[in-house]
């Protein structure tokens, strides 16, 4: 029965291990060690981190400082896309182990499908190697569509089915198709941004439910997710909310109220992040909604900074889409494409990935100002696209 779920309840994984259904997110945490330590003290036993959050060391410190035995804490981390080769995945896991101060990581994910099928395949082989070495126990994916998983399973040397798929999931984006597919395959869905990053907690229906059950909107939303059978990893830097968010185990939503919340689903429109797991490249998908159909002139994106990705897309970025050709890594694509842009004076490799999404690869100088440039793998979609972003003062190309 759903009401019997507790803070330490687990769901079985398809590799005969299990995952705690309730976890703690750390993305964009301003006080990661303190927050994760608070969560552990409050009885959370599952921590979610990632290379790109740059807080694996802080997460490890929280584990070390807690009085909880390491083997009682479940840790998930994720490989970022600059490590998407077989050796890169092995090196990435090795770095994560070191930063976390652990001998084994419970679950390791490929953070997103974006760099393309070859990169997905190779990095998966690398994660399989890490399972064999005993460095990670379970491996999975994040932000992948069923098509990405199906394609991976046909590749040479792939002998482990992803154990989980971590995707955005909450009442306004219920991922029905994807969860149905995952259920059929025995892949556990891990719900990220289960609280909609706080953006939809003022919803009227949720407020009515909160009143009816004498709970908070956050608790209603989290409880609904639990009753949908997914793993949840809400994040908070506030002790009061860390406590509030675990207040979801000694009660349950009645079936007809679950159905009322089911009706809030808006599909992809309900997405509060910027990922569309159905699209090979959500970043491009987002741009394409707004771009000039001629693909020739610059456009202005009117997006506000998103707190979970440190203002990845600043407002009023100038973007130029140009058709291009590419090989597997997308990098050649960007270089080739940039050559066709009048006024590009020089380019060099970006020294580090400083965004959570997006794919900055090259920085350079255009006659009008500096630019940053990323290559996009659209092979699963409708052809190759390159994009150029200028962050500083470039008015028009
Ligand atoms: N795989 C991926 O691509 C991916 C993408 C996004 C997230 N994730 C993972 O999923 C975790 C959770 O997602 P998320 O951090 O995006 O969003 P979330 O957990 O849905 O929401 C976190 C936000 O809600 C606020 N909040 C927390 N508890 C609250 C409450 N009881 N009432 C009102 N507001 C509350 C937090 O603020 P305070 O901190 O100020 O309390 C924070 O701003 C991440 O931390 C990360 O580990 C993975």
From TrEMBL:
Catalytic activity line of the entry: xylitol + NADP(+) = D-xylose + NADPH + H(+); xylitol + NAD(+) = D-xylose + NADH + H(+)
Entry-linked InterPro entries: AKR, Aldo/ket_reductase_CS, NAD(P)_OxRdtase_dom_sf, NADP_OxRdtase_dom
Keyword vocabulary terms for this entry: NADP, Oxidoreductase
Top-level enzyme category: oxidoreductase
Protein EC: 1.1.1.307
Matches recorded under CDD domains: AKR_AKR1-5-like
Entry coiled-coil feature ranges: none
Domain NADP-dependent oxidoreductase: 39-265
One Pfam family matching this protein: Aldo_ket_red
PANTHER family: 2,5-DIKETO-D-GLUCONIC ACID REDUCTASE, NADP-DEPENDENT OXIDOREDUCTASE DOMAIN-CONTAINING PROTEIN
Task performed by this protein: Catalyzes the initial reaction in the xylose utilization pathway by reducing D-xylose into xylitol. Xylose is a major component of hemicelluloses such as xylan. Most fungi utilize D-xylose via three enzymatic reactions, xylose reductase (XR), xylitol dehydrogenase (XDH), and xylulokinase, to form xylulose 5-phosphate, which enters pentose phosphate pathway.
Name under which the protein is recorded: D-xylose reductase [NAD(P)H]
Species of provenance: Lithohypha guttulata
């Amino acid at each position: 029965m759903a009401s019997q779920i507790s803070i330490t309840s687990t769901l079985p994984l398809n590799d005969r291990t299990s995952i705690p259904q309730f976890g703690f997110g750390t993305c964009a945490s301003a006080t990661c060690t303190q927050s994760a330590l608070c969560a552990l003290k409050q009885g959370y036993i599952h921590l979610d981190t990632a290379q790109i959050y740059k807080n694996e060391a802080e997460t490890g410190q929280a584990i070390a400082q807690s009085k909880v035995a390491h083997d009682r804490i479940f840790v998930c981390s994720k490989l970022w896309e600059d490590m998407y080769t077989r050796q890169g995945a092995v090196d990435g896991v090795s770095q994560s182990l070191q930063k976390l101060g652990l001998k084994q990581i419970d679950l390791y994910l490929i953070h997103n499908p974006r760099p393309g099928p070859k990169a997905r395949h190779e990095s998966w082989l690398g994660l399989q190697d890490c399972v064999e070495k005993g460095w990670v126990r379970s491996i999975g994916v994040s932000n992948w569509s069923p098509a990405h998983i199906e394609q991976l399973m046909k590749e040479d040397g792939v002998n482990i089915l992803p154990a989980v798929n971590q995707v955005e999931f909450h009442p306004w984006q219920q991922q029905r198709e994807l969860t149905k597919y995952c259920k059929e395959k025995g892949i556990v869905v891990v719900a990220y941004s289960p609280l909609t990053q706080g953006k939809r907690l003022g919803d009227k229906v949720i407020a009515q439910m909160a009143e009816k059950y004498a709970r908070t909107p956050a608790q209603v939303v989290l409880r609904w997710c639990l009753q949908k059978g997914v793993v949840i990893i809400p994040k908070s830097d506030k002790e009061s909310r860390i406590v509030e968010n675990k207040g979801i185990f000694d009660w349950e939503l009645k079936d007809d109220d679950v159905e009322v919340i089911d009706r809030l689903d808006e599909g992809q429109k309900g997405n509060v992040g910027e990922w569309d797991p159905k699209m090979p490249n959500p970043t491009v998908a987002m741009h394409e909604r707004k771009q000039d159909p001629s693909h020739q002139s610059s456009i202005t994106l009117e997006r506000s900074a998103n707190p979970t990705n440190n203002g990845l897309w600043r407002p009023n970025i100038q973007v130029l889409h140009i058709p291009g050709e590419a090989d597997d890594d997308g990098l050649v694509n960007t270089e080739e494409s940039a050559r066709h842009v009048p006024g590009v004076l020089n380019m060099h490799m970006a020294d580090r990935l400083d965004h959570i999404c997006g794919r900055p690869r090259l920085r350079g100088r255009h006659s009008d100002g500096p630019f940053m440039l990323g290559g996009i793998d659209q092979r699963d979609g409708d052809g190759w696209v390159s994009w150029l972003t200028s962050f500083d003062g470039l008015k028009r190309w």
